[in-house]
């Protein structure tokens, strides 16, 4: 009952004029950002964070969450119409969305994507409302050792479940952490890693510099290489008959909606996962369980609904650990978490007691954003198609302008703009060689918090690392640490498992 | 054989791994300027964490190099060009123009630098008319000015062009 009242209060908060205006504006920007190839929620949120400095934190989080949410809807538009995913989260939408468009049923694909996103979003936000308060209550009992163990687990999840090259993943985590140590040591106050005595390094490296560099500059370079500045779009006829036919086709997608919504939510909670693997997994499982699995890939609405349900559901799911534990569930929530620190908040369970308006305003806004995004998405399809015709060669310099100004604004230092360019170029090269970049962004956000938790824990234990493994004194920290160790060593068993499985199959 | 064909994925992989290994060593040396030891009495030295994180980075790059030598990574067997010639043109021009943009910001100020950057970029890569490019290149910095200086009250760097903005500030704040 308490939850229901808090939720109602949160919904009222999101209906305040400033919040509602920013919510609708955020949904629109998110749809646009999601629809443009090369831009996704993470790019949008990273580039837009600097403009939230003048508004209250609640309005800022509502705006950015709406951008995140809208981008999940928008990604499907370019997947269907261009055959290029608007963002990595919409990769699986291409598999059946594009064939539907090629067959002349683009409207069916776009409607399936919008309705799927709405269902996934609604289910996940209900799950979020139910799970968040009890999880936050448990997390309130966490001290420094538990917090540090949780962060180690977040890093370990990338190694165990990320699916990327293990040394490259660990390198990415470590470089993010190393970058976060630049500046003044928080205990001794001594300057660390001040290269060439450049004073700009004394204030450390703002996570936004790395995030905008990688997801703004680096991603634009990547997309310029992929598209060479051009776009190719399918034809679309929009009329009521088409829309009605599209809704009729959704009757056969109930199973896909269930799989996408629930699987997406729980995959979204995992720190390394986020919306991209959630949508791919949902597509795969729906295909396997479907009676018409052979038709998947040739243009079936269920093949669009499953990943779209999942990516929306996962985006909400990834906010659960961000709010309750202070651990982001996706690269976008890592940036949101960094934003909270910039706005002067302390991410974690205390938010539920100290900043209820912020927390419940965000949760309430997710319900409202879900509705508005569905309406805007379907109503504005013709407008988004016009936007998609903009050649990338025109869009790219505008994004670069936003990156340069966004990189400068937080600290008002050209030093940070140079660093942002450097990270952008480096991120582009590293991504081409399959170095995952998301762990570096997560690490630079969590680095200072992890270091603080580690050093506080070691002061508590008189310098003994045993505090993290002591089942009698700190059982939660120990259990989390052991899970982290299992996740870290899991990739080593992959080849053994495959070898055993192959042998069993041949015998 | 063009330069872009000579730089294969395979060569890029090993070159980048070696560069990252050298960067890791440089970070270790830099970290060692502070105390890198840790014990119960003295607690953790300021250089301890960066030193061991850099050591971890070095180990990871060495593992990547070993995988490359043993041909265990997909990149170690990939002889395709790291970047296609046409795409290289886009990337190289973009990177160079961005570097010049940031250099120019320090001297000319952001607004005039943006005008030149946008005009050059659109002229080079798009087939739009001179009129479109001129209007677009002028409007974007104006909107940037209004957004940052008027709405957010965040001054952006103006370099030698700063005196030109005094009348605008007088108008804005009078």
Describe the secondary-structure layout:
The complex is a heterodimer of chains A (507) and B (174).
Chain A: H1 2-14, H2 17-35, H3 41-48, H4 57-81, H5 91-102, H6 106-139, H7 144-161, H8 166-180, E1 183-184, E2 191-192, H9 207-227, H10 240-249, H11 254-269, H12 275-289, H13 301-317, H14 319-324, H15 331-342, H16 350-354, H17 356-379, H18 381-388, H19 392-408, H20 414-432, H21 438-460, H22 475-506
Antiparallel strand pairs in A: 1-2
Chain B: H1 3-6, H2 9-31, E1 38-39, E2 43-44, H3 48-69, H4 85-108, H5 110-125, H6 130-151, H7 162-173
Antiparallel strand pairs in B: 1-2
Strand order across the biggest sheet of chain B?
A: 1-2
- What is the chain-wise order of helices and strands of chain B? HHEEHHHHH
Helix-strand category of chain A = mainly alpha
Strand-residue fraction of chain B? under 5%
Radius of gyration of chain A: 22 Å
Tell me what the structure shows.
The complex is a heterodimer of chains A (about 500) and B (about 170). Chain A has 22 helices and two strands. Chain A has helices spanning about 1-15, 15-35, 40-50, 55-80, 90-100, 105-140, 145-160, 165-180, 205-225, 240-250, 255-270, 275-290, 300-315, 320-325, 330-340, 350-355, 355-380, 380-390, 390-410, 415-430, 440-460, 475-505; strands at about 185, 190. By secondary structure, chain A is mainly α. Chain A has a two-stranded antiparallel ribbon with strand order 1-2. Chain A has one domain. The model of chain A has no long low-confidence stretch (mean pLDDT about 85). Chain B has about 170 residues and is mainly α. Chain B has two domains: about 5-75; about 85-175, no CATH class. Chain B has seven helices and two strands; from the N terminus they run H-H-E-E-H-H-H-H-H. Chain B has helices spanning about 5, 10-30, 50-70, 85-110, 110-125, 130-150, 160-174; strands at about 40, 45. A two-stranded antiparallel sheet of chain B has the order 1-2. In chain B, helix 4 (about 85-110) runs antiparallel to helix 5 and helix 5 runs antiparallel to helix 6 (about 130-150). The longest helix of chain B is centred in the middle third of the chain and has 24 residues, at about 85-110. Chain B is flat, with a radius of gyration of 24 Å. The termini of chain B are far apart. The mean pLDDT of chain B is about 90. At the A-B interface, helix 8, helix 9, helix 19, helix 20 and helix 21 of A face helix 2, strand 1, strand 2, helix 3 and helix 4 of B.
């Amino acid at each position: 009952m308490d939850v229901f009242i808090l939720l109602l209060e949160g919904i009222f908060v999101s209906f305040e004029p400033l919040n509602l205006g920013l919510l609708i504006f955020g949904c629109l920007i998110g749809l646009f950002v999601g629809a443009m190839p090369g831009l996704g929620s993470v790019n949008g949120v990273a580039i837009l964070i600097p403009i939230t400095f003048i508004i209250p934190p609640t309005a800022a989080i509502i705006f950015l969450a709406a951008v995140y949410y809208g981008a999940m809807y928008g990604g499907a538009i370019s997947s269907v119409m261009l055959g290029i995913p608007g963002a990595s989260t919409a990769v699986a939408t291409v598999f059946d969305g594009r064939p539907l468009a090629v067959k002349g049923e683009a409207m069916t694909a776009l409607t399936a994507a919008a309705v799927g996103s709405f269902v996934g979003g609604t289910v996940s936000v209900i799950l979020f409302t139910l799970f968040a308060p009890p999880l936050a209550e448990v997390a309130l009992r966490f001290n420094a050792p538990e917090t540090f163990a949780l962060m180690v687990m977040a890093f370990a999840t990338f190694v165990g479940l990320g699916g990327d090259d293990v040394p490259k993943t660990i390198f990415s985590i470590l470089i993010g952490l190393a970058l976060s140590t630049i500046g003044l040591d928080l205990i001794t106050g001594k300057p660390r890693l001040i290269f060439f005595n450049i004073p700009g390094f004394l204030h450390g490296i703002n996570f936004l510099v790395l995030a905008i560099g990688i997801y703004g500059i680096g991603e634009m370079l990547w997309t310029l290489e992929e598209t060479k500045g051009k776009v190719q779009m399918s034809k679309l006829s929009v009329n009521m008959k088409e829309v009605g036919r599209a809704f009729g086709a959704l009757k056969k997608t109930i199973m896909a909606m269930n799989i996408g919504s629930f699987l997406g939510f729980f995959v979204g909670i995992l720190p390394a996962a986020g919306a991209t693997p959630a949508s791919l997994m949902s597509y795969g499982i729906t295909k396997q369980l479907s009676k018409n699995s052979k038709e998947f890939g040739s243009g079936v609405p269920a093949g669009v609904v499953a990943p779209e349900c999942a990516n929306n559901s996962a985006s909400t799911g990834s906010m659960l650990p961000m709010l309750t534990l202070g651990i982001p569930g996706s690269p976008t929530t890592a940036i949101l978490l960094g934003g909270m620190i910039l706005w002067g908040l302390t991410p974690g369970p205390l938010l539920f007691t100290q900043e209820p308006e912020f927390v419940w305003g965000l949760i309430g806004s997710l319900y409202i954003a879900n509705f508005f995004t569905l309406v805007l998405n379907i109503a504005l399809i013709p407008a988004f198609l016009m936007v998609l015709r903009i050649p990338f060669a025109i869009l790219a310099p505008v994004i670069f302008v936003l990156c340069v100004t966004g990189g400068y604004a937080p600290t008002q230092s050209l030093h940070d703009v140079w660093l942002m360019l450097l990270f952008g170029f480096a991120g582009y090269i590293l991504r081409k060689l399959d170095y995952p970049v998301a762990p570096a962004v997560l690490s630079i956000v969590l680095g200072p918090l992890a270091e603080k938790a580690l050093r506080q824990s070691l002061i508590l234990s008189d310098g003994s690392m045993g505090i993290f493994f002591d089942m009698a004194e700190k059982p939660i920290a120990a259990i989390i640490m052991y899970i982290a160790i299992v996740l870290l060593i899991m990739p080593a068993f992959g080849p053994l498992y495959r070898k055993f499985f192959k042998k069993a199959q041949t015998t | 054989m063009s330069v872009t064909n000579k730089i294969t994925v395979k060569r890029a992989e090993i070159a980048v791994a070696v560069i990252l290994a050298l960067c890791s060593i440089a970070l270790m040396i830099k970290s060692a300027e502070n105390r890198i030891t840790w014990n119960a009495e003295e607690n953790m030295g300021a250089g301890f964490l960066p030193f061991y994180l850099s050591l971890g980075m070095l180990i990871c790059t060495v593992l990547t190099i070993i995988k490359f030598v043993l041909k265990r990574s997909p990149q170690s067997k990939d002889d395709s060009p790291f970047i296609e010639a046409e795409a290289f043109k886009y990337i190289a021009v973009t990177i160079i123009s961005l570097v010049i943009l940031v250099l120019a910001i320090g001297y000319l100020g952001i607004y005039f630098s943006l005008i030149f950057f946008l005009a050059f970029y659109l002229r080079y890569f798009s087939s739009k008319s001179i009129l479109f490019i001129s209007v677009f290149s002028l409007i974007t910095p104006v909107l940037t000015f209004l957004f940052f200086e008027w709405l957010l009250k965040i001054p952006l760097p103006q370099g030698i062009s700063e005196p030109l903005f005094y009348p605008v500030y007088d108008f804005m704040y009078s």
